[in-house]
């Protein structure tokens, strides 16, 4: 399986960082995790037929994670999609997405859209496909968000994505035994749990507590790209395993 990091921006895009979403690709087909702008365009440029999309998993309802959804759904209908498209998300995110659909997608174009609510029990299985299973847990964020644990069927390499969150015990538990933690690092100084984001050092602490061997930082503050040496110093003292800041387009194999 491979996970393509389509963007790494912490809500504010830069010339180097587009908004954050992923493509998850396996032998059975491909999925989108969150939905940035021009998803169809990006998929086509990468050689994927948008009509073959298996489904989507949305971590939460903040604009930078779901703003591409209405135009993507319209695009799929115009291409002729009639096969049901499952979209998995927690209840508040589904509610927000339904509002977007009501606003932008005429009723005659909605027949193929299928929302599925992911519950809030930490560690529960949310999805099972021929390629992978997904387990989820609520995080600490301004909008209810879910971290995701991917267990592939054909390998033993487990990947966990924190989604947007302050340092979170649920993420530590979800990441335990995983091979790679992809954790957000949106801020350089700690912020309140009401806002709910992490510094690189806080992400490193989560990785250390969960005893994962490798840490990848995403949703990353632009300073981590321009001056990573300085801003990763504290994180490297806490987490001694391989640690780096993901670039847009980076691919994780697992
Ligand atoms: Zn967010």
Task: Describe, in plain words, how this protein is organized in 3D.
This protein is globular. The mean pLDDT is 97. It has 254 residues and is α/β, with parallel strands linked by helices. It has nine helices and 14 strands. Strands 6-5-4-3-2-1-14 form a seven-stranded mixed beta sheet. It has a seven-stranded mixed beta sheet with strand order 7-8-9-10-11-12-13. It has one domain: Ribonuclease Z/Hydroxyacylglutathione hydrolase-like (Metallo-beta-lactamase, Chain A), CATH 3.60.15. The chain has helices spanning 39-45, 63-66, 69-79, 91-104, 169-175, 200-210, 222-226, 228-231, 233-238; strands at 2-5, 22-26, 29-33, 55-57, 85-90, 113-118, 124-128, 132-138, 146-152, 159-161, 180-184, 215-218, 243-245, 251-253. Zinc ion is lined by residues 60, 62, 141, 143, 164.
